[in-house]
Amino acid sequence: MNTQPTRAIETSGLVKVYNGTRAVDGLDLNVPAGLVYGI
């Protein structure tokens, strides 16, 4: 039986650049289904 919750969002090493500036650098994030996260 699988005991790990289903993930609604999963990312590893996410990078986001705006006009040459790194706004996000190496984000690892797991959000289980049914939960709400605010950033």
Descriptive notes:
The protein has strands spanning 7-18, 21-32. With 39 residues, the protein is mostly beta strands. The protein has one domain (1-39). A two-stranded antiparallel sheet has the order 1-2. A hairpin with a 2-residue loop joins strand 1 (7-18) and strand 2. The model has no long low-confidence stretch (mean pLDDT 91). This is Daunorubicin and doxorubicin resistance determinant. It comes from Streptomyces peucetius.
In terms of topology, how is this protein built?
Layout: E1 7-18, E2 21-32
Antiparallel strand pairs: 1-2
Briefly summarize what is shown.
The chain is mostly beta strands and 39 residues long. 0% of the residues lie in helices and 62% in strands.
Strand percentage, roughly?
over 45%
**Strand order within the widest sheet?**
1-2
Biggest pleated sheet: 2 strands, antiparallel
Shape: elongated
Distance between the termini: 32 Å
Mean pLDDT figure: 91
- The unreliable regions are none
Helix content: under 10%
As for the number of domains, it is: 1
The tally of beta strands, per DSSP, is 2
Q: Structural class of the secondary elements?
A: mainly beta
N-to-C SSE string, H for helix and E for strand: EE
What's the tally of helices?
A: 0
Spatial extent as radius of gyration: 13 Å
